[in-house]
Design a protein that fits this description.
The protein is an alpha/beta fold and 225 residues long. The protein contains eight helices and eight strands; from the N terminus they run βαβαβαβαββαβαβαα. Bound molecules: D-xylitol-5-phosphate and zinc ion. D-xylitol-5-phosphate (DX5) binds next to β2, β8 and α7.
């Protein structure tokens, strides 16, 4: 099964609880939370206060993607707000080993993410210590951008490394995922799909969710639409 992690970045925040319930009923596995500070990326979203509210209305795994500087200073606050896992950018964490240890010390799953231009060789020495690797398939900061096709090879390389070293990290893909791009990333080895605008940016959220999920499962089973 391919896991689905809808990103609330594209949700209607005046109806956030209702929209999360829609994807929960449709079969979402995780809720993806994009945390932006206006420094590491040129956009500002939300923080622990809003997440604590989301925690009250769903039992789904809360998957926080930190696009912030000085992440170490905020890890505990996100844990207290109720997230289940924290993913940090290798480009924004000068002491990545320590950051991953801190996330684990908080009893959370740890993830590392790579911008499109960042090679996986940079994180190979630490891949045995994380539960998740997030491949950005757009530049971080905004929803609704175009999927960068060249990232499919990076996903395949991460999948190969995982198999060769008998590791078990999830390979999550984020940016421009819809029913047309999901099949190629799943065939390359992606195990978790983040999708924002293609789910929350359309009128029928549940139908959009099912279209992407179906396309992903068919690709996993070697079928084509
Ligand atoms: C972008 C975020 C994504 C965003 C994806 O920086 O990390 O999670 O929500 O949006 P779509 O699916 O619209 O590309
Ligand atoms: Zn994200």
């Amino acid at each position: 099964m391919v896991k689905m992690a809808p990103s609330v970045l594209s949700a209607d925040f005046s109806q956030l609880a209702e929209q999360i319930k829609i994807v929960e009923r449709a079969g979402a596995d995780w809720i993806h939370l994009d945390i932006m500070d206006g420094h590491y990326v040129p956009n500002i979203t939300f923080g622990p206060l809003v997440i604590a509210g989301i925690r009250k209305i769903t039992h789904l795994t809360l998957d926080a993607h930190l696009m912030i500087e000085n992440a170490d200073a905020y890890l505990a606050a996100f844990q207290e707000a109720g997230v289940n896992q924290l993913t940090v950018h290798v480009e924004a964490c000068p002491h990545l080993w320590t950051t991953i240890d801190k996330i684990h010390d908080l009893h959370l799953r740890a993830g590392i993410t790579l911008n499109p231009a960042t090679p996986i060789s940079l994180i190979e020495p630490i891949l045995h210590r994380v539960e998740l690797v997030l491949v950005m398939t757009v530049e971080p900061g905004f929803g609704g951008q175009r999927f960068i096709d060249a990232m499919v090879d990076k996903i395949a390389a991460l999948h190969k490394f995982k198999q060769e070293h008998k590791l078990s990290y999830e390979i999550q893909v984020d940016g421009g995922i819809d029913e047309t791009t999901a099949p190629s990333v799943v065939r390359a080895g992606a195990t978790v799909l983040v999708a924002g605008s293609s789910i929350f940016g359309v009128a029928d959220i549940a139908a959009a969710f099912h279209r992407i999920k179906t396309a992903a499962e068919m690709a996993k089973n070697g079928e084509s639409l």
